[in-house]
Amino acid sequence: MEKEQKLKLIGIDIGTTHCKVGLFDAKGRLLHLEKQPTITHQSADGRLSYDPEELWQQFAGMLKQVLAPAKPGEVQAIGIASMAEAGLLVDKGTGKPKTEIVPWYDRRTMKQYERISQEGDVRTLFSRIGLYPSFKHGLAKILWFKEQEPSLLEDGIWLSAADYLAFRLTGKFGTDHTLAARTYAYRIDRKEWDKEWLAAFGLKADLFPPVKASGSPLGEVRGELGFPPGIKVAVAGHDHLCAALAVGAIKPGVVFDSIGTAESLIGTLDQRVLGEKEYNSRLSFGCHVVPGKMVWIGGLSASGGSLEWLRRQLGDEPLSYGEIETLLASTGPEPTGIIYYPYLSGSGAPLPDPKVRGALIGLSAEHGKADLLKAILEGTAYEMEAIRRAAAQVTDDEIEQFVAVGGGTRNHTWMRIKATVSGCTIRIPPVEEATLLGAALLAAIGAGFFQNTEEAVAGLELEAESQVVAPWEESKERYRQIFEEGYLKLQHPIRQYFRTAGKD
Q1: How far, CA to CA in Å, does 10 sit from each of 272, 433, 493?
Q2: Strand, coil or helix: what is 350?
Q3: Which pLDDT does position 2 carry in this prediction?
Q4: Which residues form the Carbohydrate kinase FGGY C-terminal domain (predicted)?
């Protein structure tokens, strides 16, 4: 009990939109939060990147603020989570970055993605890697750098954003299974780098760091950094999976829904051999932060991003979120009848295609701002319902509940639309920073303060009850009809257009 009262933990989240550092007690209460925008740079030819030194300075400054009031020995562990596919090459000898950090969404790697797709048997690779080829993966980024300057790979090591920050804190290289599994170079069936596959591109496994369980201590904070000594540092892993742990969405039949700029649905599976059923779902599979478990993942790159795009178009100044809520509240429970395909950045499962583009169908002169805003939210809900149905076929589980976190949960109309389209209840837990909390808990488990994930989650004391959002019962049938007769059936001609006449 005394240990729990004194124990303080830090979670770090390197996100697409924001960088965050949070201080928690052992009961999961957030004591201090530092938050800054993730600084994104764009080159003249459109390439997007983060500056490694700039990112490190951001986090070093926020860590100093969080640690300033802590007593010596009070903070025991730091867990670091990050977006999954962002990474860079670092010199093994000097520790200096060889490249910028490439975000997961940067599209410079489209040529490399096509080469990867043609190089190996996608079905065979899926059975051991759990993924389909994508321009997002670490392997595509590595090949892009290799084509620009082959010497970049000499004495180089590929690190995810979380791995890099952990290295700067400890001086040691390492990653966890969940981030390794998003490189398209890691065998989730054997928990090792895929040497045979890498050899097809002239790459070796030593280009990648050692892999440990999520939350395993990588080392202690280096004394010369000026932070209190003795703090253990761990790579906690994929941000969405850390968040799922923090809110207890780690059981079959309960789906974690992370709603931000992008949106992801994530479910938990027991370990299994990936076969035809999994392959045909077009979902991604990988390692969980929970030992002995796997995950399925389906996502939409432009979920909240679609709403952000539209609110910038509807006036000289972007609509405020208050204005959006007021407009949406005026629409009632009935669907707009407009079909929006939210493919501003391509589509994922169950019909992955990085080249497809968005579309609005069914507009009339009577439609106004409120209808357009609602249609955008309906389109994202339809896309996530397609993912939910694909997952239900794979898992043979009745998916009846989402546990949702992220900025999108503050939009009540959106949550009602999602509940109505899916027929599921949506539970919104009272956790302010789920990714930070999950990262902190995993570091505490790795440092031996909790025996396992069950004990860590069971010890959380959340002051408020979860909000539960139910469907609009009177609108469920109409939404189902639009989804099945409109959204699903019009997919083929839309996609066919972009494969032929609509090419860039």
Answers
A1: 33, 12, 50
A2: coil
A3: 44
A4: 289-446
